[in-house]
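Researcher: Please translate sequence to structure tokens.
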Amino acid sequence: MSERSRYELADGIATITMDDGKVNALSSAMLAELMAHFVQAEADEAVVVLTGRASTLSAGFDLRTEPGGWPAMLAAGAELAERMLSFPRPVVVACHGNAIAMGAFLLLSADYRVGAAGDFRIGLNEVAIGLTLPWFGIALARHRLTRPYYDRCAITGVTVGPDEAETAGFLDEVVDPGTAGESARAAAIGLAGINMAAHAATKLRVREQVLAGVRDGIERVRAGNPAEV
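Model: Translation complete:
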């Protein structure tokens, strides 16, 4: 079993848990594991619940990565977002606390997002720490955030608490602390009853533009121009 993540299948629900013992930094290794778990979930024809540690979904990309490793990590993050956006069955996220940068992009890529109430922060902090928001992230934010919050969150790097995150569009539901996992699983069980063929086809129609934007972002990273990622 990996020290970073695990995959559990029960009653048609695949639970993917990130737990690196710290803040669930999305390194290339963590992202590769998550992608492999989604491949397995598709093979298992399962609805997915993605979750993390108590108080932390993820603090975002692993900032300890050497500069030469950034393009591959960014591409892997964008590819995971694309996978989640186009996954043929529902994807639910249980966010027990903080979700920052790529952690917030995971929220923006899911079908239903449950967050825990508390003194937590959610948002796109790239600008606040001196990074330009990647193109794939802009596509995700444009698609899921309300217009005023899209502009504010993207260009200022502000992070918000769970209740405001629901208003902004990062979350669909805020629940009592300690119940996010239970609520997410209940949502997943409910979604398991919908027509999956219609769900998959409609998802691709509804998300045609954001998927095109994310794929364009992937190609920009692969092209190797740092100013264009």
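Researcher: Any highlights?
Model: Residues 5-179+190-228 form a domain with the 2-enoyl-CoA Hydratase; Chain A, domain 1 fold (CATH 3.90.226.10).
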